[in-house]
Amino acid sequence: MNTLADKIKKIKAVITDVDGVLTDATMNFFSTPAGKIAEVKKFCAYDGIGFILLRDFGFKTGIITGGNAPATEHRASTLGLDFLYYNYLDKLPALKDLMARCNLKAEEIAYIGDDLIDMPALKYVGLACAVNNAVPEVKSEADYITQVDGGKGAFREVAELILKMQGFWPEALKKSEEGTIGSSQKRPLVVIDFKKQNQK
Predict the structure, then answer these.
(1) What is the rounded distance in angstroms from the CA atom of residue 73 to the CA atom of residue 191?
(2) Residue 115 belongs to what H/E stretch?
(3) pLDDT 10s digit of each residue in the chain, 200 long?
(4) Do residues 41 and 21 touch, judged by C-beta distance below 8 A?
(5) Beta strands in 56-166 (DSSP E)
(6) Which domain holds residue 137?
(7) In this structure, how many other beta carbons lie within 10 angstroms of the beta carbon of residue 35?
(8) Which CATH number goes with the domain that contains 174?
(9) CA distance to 55, 133, 155, 158, 178, per residue, from 174 (Å)
(10) Which residues contact 85 (CB under 8 A, 6 or more apart)?
(11) Which helix (H) or strand (E) holds 77?
């Protein structure tokens, strides 16, 4: 049976949910002057550096979400993520599509979730991670449960765990001293909308 360390050492991509993982699960809406409804998301800066560090060391990163907030796409593009899957309440098809595009095996992927719709993805990947405030069913499937809640640096915690276990952390600290974190070239964000895909 593979240990946690064995699983972590195989990881080449880190994929995450948004609400409840990159945010604290609070959903804020307001009315615009034009009479439309806009959603505001509060992201954690620590997580942002986690994404950037993973990119710097060659990991693929992505988001699979059941929603479609423009703020999520802006965040993903700004940080240089590889993939953003919108409107995927069933996360597994998106995960398999990403694997095919990147020629990755399930054991090479870490997924971070918090709620029941994340369960199929968590059961499928090599490293299943749950945030500290995840529902009990998700925690029961997790190889690793973060010490902090979603929206409070949970993604960063997983990113650091992987970088440390794979031996990249000393170089990451060196990059921080040199001011070269984020020096790797951003890859263009691939955005895939489930609803648009299924209208064809």
Answers:
(1) 8
(2) none
(3) 789 999 999 999 999 999 999 999 776 666 667 777 666 788 999 999 999 999 999 999 999 999 888 899 999 999 999 999 999 999 999 999 999 999 999 999 999 999 999 999 999 999 999 999 999 999 999 999 999 999 999 999 999 999 999 999 999 999 999 999 999 999 899 999 987 776 55
(4) no
(5) 60-64, 83-86, 109-113, 127-130, 144-145
(6) 4-197
(7) 6
(8) 3.40.50.1000
(9) 16, 33, 21, 20, 6
(10) 62, 63, 64, 65, 91, 94, 97, 98, 192, 194
(11) helix 70-79
- φ/ψ of 77, rounded to 5, equals -70, -45
Q: Provide the domain count of the chain.
A: 1
Predicted TM-score (pTM) of this structure: 0.93
Token pair of 144 as six digits: 């690793």
Q: How many Å apart are CA 125 and CA 112, to the nearest integer?
A: 10
